[in-house]
Prior knowledge:
By secondary structure, the protein is an all-alpha fold. Helix content is 85%, strand content 0%. The termini are far apart.
Amino acid sequence: MKSKYEGKLKLSIVKAAVKKVQQGFKRSNPDAGIEKLDKLVADMKLSGEGLQEVLYVKSLIQFQTQQKDKAKKTLEAALKAAPETKKGAHIEEVLLTVFKPKAEPKKDDTANAKDDKAEAKKDDAKSKKDDKAKSKKGDKAEPKQDDKAKKN
Length: 152
């Protein structure tokens, strides 16, 4: 029971320290914020939910400063620190929505796309051929109408 209480106390201390760093980050250098978070992890020898809290905020700072690859890796580490927490579920959701894996086209899809392009070219060529044939017929038909007009 004592260790459970100590864990909750430590977590509340961590959350307060993290909040302070977040407030400072908004006013100053993001690198300084990350350094403070890293120092907090080292000084308090954090693990579990406390580590997750710190890593989550660190990833936010990284994301906001366009360090998206680092932010993703930090979030993945935060998830590993305490996967069963509410924050862990939220992190999973963020990883799936914000950091979606890039969809690679299937080999069949690329082959189909090539086939579609080839078919479109054939259709286009046939259409042009048909248009030429119609225009030739139209050219022959017009003089006949002119001939009729001359006869009248």
